[in-house]
Amino acid sequence: MKKLLYGLLTLALLLGSSYAVVAAPGPGGPGGPGGPGSILPMVLSLGLTDAQKHDVAVLLQKYEAKFQAGGSAIHAAFEELGDVMRSDPGNEKLVRAACRKLAAASEELAVLRGKQMAEVKALLTPAQVKLLDEQAPPPPAPKKERVNPMRALEQEWINAHAGTAK
Q: How far apart are CA 74 and CA 27, in angstroms?
């Protein structure tokens, strides 16, 4: 039972600490190829000419392998962080190094998305750029009222065993 509890607590800490690092959208997610918020659905709604469609398709093709590599780098870094948190969670130096690696991979992907968007905008008319900018979804608002079930379970356990039950 103790091992299960420690495992759950480690998982909760890992997810909580790494969420801030990987909160930026990646491949398959908002802003990544093929995911919700992908650049393609936004661009397709702009009424592109045939020449623009061709140019945008070539540009998306140019970035496809780069996004794939970036997603793989983030996945590998996230796995490495998980390995560190499972094997030596008290080693601050290793935890920080793994987090920096994950942050760097996420940063590279964000820069790549920015470059791709800039190149797409260069192919559009000013009216299309304005429409594209208007379509961009706003960042989600913080969900303060949302309760993380793992955190609630952890808090319940703490309150029950620390003598601070409410």
A: 10
On whether the pTM is more than 0.85, the answer is no
Which domain, by its residues, includes 85?
29-136
Over residues 144-163, the pLDDT tens digits come to 766 777 888 888 888 888 87
User: How big is the CA angle at 65 (ends 60 and 67), to the nearest 5 degrees?
Assistant: 75
Query: Is 14 within a domain?
Result: no
Distance CA 162, CA 3 (A): 19
Domain assignment of residue 103, yes or no: yes
- Evaluate whether residue 18 is within a structural domain: no
Tens digits of residue pLDDT in 39-72: 888 888 899 999 999 999 999 999 999 999 999 9
Ordered alpha helix ranges (H), the chain = 2-22, 39-44, 50-87, 92-122, 126-135, 149-161
Query: CATH number, domain at 84?
Result: 1.20.120.1490
Distance CA 52, CA 16 (A): 43
